[in-house]
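User: What would this chain look like folded?
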Amino acid sequence: MSSMAPIGVFDSGIGGTTVVKELMKSLPNEKIVYFGDTARVPYGNKSKETIIMYSRQIADFLISQGVKAIVIACNTASALALETLRHELKVPIIGVVKPGAKAAAEATENNRIGVIATRATINSGIYEEFLHKTDPKIKIFKKACPLFVPLVEEGWISDDITRQIIHRYLDELLEKDIDALILGCTHYPLLAEEIAKVAGKKIKLVNPAFECAREFRYMLEENDLLCEEKQDPVHEFYVSDGPRAFAELAGSFLGEGIVGPDEVKIRNFEQR
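Assistant: Here's the prediction, encoded as structure tokens.
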């Protein structure tokens, strides 16, 4: 595989652009092919079998675009489908959960960490698994926040209803004396400013997107796939529904115009 080939990134919708933004900073020479499964968002209330099926379809689409490595920018898919895809794919692949857990373990001072995520990610226990491997003494307090994803997809980033829902989800969690809070869904960093107002200055917000970009760079280097040639890549964006709405929201977040995105009938892409 050529180091000049693009990298693939996928998510259930718009949230994965938080990872794209960090990848653009960390890997400015790399071309990104992004797929957001906007027709089937959210993933957090779906079964493991369904998430694996969706992830296979998307991975096959990205491979058809010639990608050299893949980032699963979705915490739910990282928790439920990453290991399956690692066994099935010939390209290197990384998820966002392990880097985020590692960063939280480094950030906490009192060993009390909060995790907010989709129901599927919370129920998987994947963050506890990685955090306890780092330090068995860490205490973890979890909260599923299923309404955050549709709020972000709707573009209600700073809204009175959004603020009320943040309080509804977090008030009880914040009573647990946590000093680090993992934003365990790639949609959630888009709400980070509002979440920080509720959480307060004493609690460090951990964005797995930043840590994932750093780990992904290491993975490319280890596999001799890092693009060293300076270039100004044109990134490609694809969705399974609603390209215009995606372009408006993603463009405002990334701070640049989005070329496309093109709509893909993703169900046609599962080869197994």
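The mean pLDDT is 93. If you want, I can go into more detail on any region.
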